[in-house]
Amino acid sequence: MSDDLRGMDLLQDATRNKGSAFTLEERSKYGLRGLLPAAVSTQEMQMTRALGNIRRKAYDIERYIFLRALQVRNERLYFQLIINNIEELMPIIYTPTVGQACKEYSHIFRQPRGLFITADDHGDIRELLNNWPERDVRMIVVTDGERILGLGDLGVNGMGIPLGKLALYTACAGIQPHQCLPVTIDIGTNNESLHEDPLYLGVRQKRITGNAYFELLDEFVVSVQEVFPGSLIQFEDFATQNAYRLLNTWKERVLCFNDDIQGTAAVVLAGVLAATKITGQPLNELKFMFLGAGSAATGIADLICVALCSLGLTAREARQRLWFVDHRGLLVKGREHLAPHNTLYAHEHPGMGFVEAIKTIKPQVLIGATGSPGTFKREELQAMADINKCPAIFALSNPTSRAECTAEQAYLYTDGRAIFASGSPFDPVTIGGRTYRPGQGNNAYIFPGMGLGAIACSAQGICDEMLIAAAHVLAGEVSEQDLADGSLYPALSGIRDISLKIAVAVAKTAFDQGLVPAGQGIVSEDEIAAMMYDPGY
Fold first, then answer.
1. Are strands 429-431 and 434-436 parallel, antiparallel or unpaired?
2. I want to staple 94 with a disulfide (CB 3.0 to 4.6 A). Which of 37, 164, 352, 521 is the partner?
3. Which CATH superfamily is domain 97-254 in?
4. CA–CA separation, 408 and 84 (whole Å)
5. Are 447 and 420 in contact (CB under 8 A)?
């Protein structure tokens, strides 16, 4: 610890503060005598105290507020607490509680954390980035708040998402906290209820669109390259059309990715690979049906298509195994107003509704990414069970309240034969004397390790092969017991070890794909492990 901070200044510095864990020697050295109670606590004792305070609170949003306050007060204790209790606390710091935290962001606001950029800052974004106190930024999560989880346009309230994602980067993969920068591009909101909320903290106007919007975002990306060269930009919760345009504009030019499109795709591919261990059907023989045709669903299909091609299928053959249904029915050729990202998956086929499409196409895997709760109804689930001995059901929409079906419904309407995964957690379900422990297809299994691997090797981009490598590592971590319990994903308790393995695979793949700067060799597991943040004291 440096000697530049003393007394109350030290106690108010979240990165250095240890609170009651300062030793008697440290209290004398740093001018802390008399400023703390006499007893010296260990970090373990502090975690016991904090966990007790969390558990006595009545609501998850209160637990979220407590943890955010702890992060501001004692950063190392915050992260050690999360690491040691990841299965209990991840649903608090991220989905599903982060959804409520975003909706209430302007009402539970305590102090700013992150960077806020508005349309009025056009031309000055580099100056704003230079206002950030840290120079060694390596990981940036940015949102414009337009499509937060399955909740829609939350404007500046969407800042809860970058905050939560970056907390997981540190807790799950050891990215140093000072290297993380959350950003919200606040260009207004079309949510009238926010305009009318007197406590709303964002710009009270309709969203800017068109050239003005993309000029602002382009300036942001270019400015990041100048101020924080080599940092990874993660685009988060943008509307589908904007998400694809941003990704397609920049993915070949800077280190960036979209977690909704690419991270979700990798974690679902991992779940599908794990499911093949149960069904015995290889990936290249499966047919997939998607309910929802937005960025998440199409991103999953795009990555599965690449994975199928790696197994010998042509691109056309692979796409023939990927079918989409939206609110107008089966996606088919000839339909008007198809979005560009949907056209490749519009097949020559008669139009029809959801249930009829299941019965006609006969998919083995049903994937929901709609943001609309309850859209996998009894009839659709029973149709999947009639076709398949063990139908794979992925109800991915977040938070839990937006899931296409509950775990109980998936098991109940398939006579307990479903292989179920969701985007947010569900409790175990007991049906017919058997207890199922549904797995959560949480992007946190993928993006932290992928980000760690990318920055460890100074990757110059994120390619599909890196995502597929990450998916194979994750699928390989699913044990026989996990599968027997009905889970397509491993226990979250091992997330840091999983993230390290993913980082190693991603870095090696980046090297093999020519995305590592010339003259730099493969980064070893030991070297990557040495980079990981240890919050203990």
1. antiparallel
2. 164
3. Malic enzyme, N-terminal domain (3.40.50.10380)
4. 29
5. no
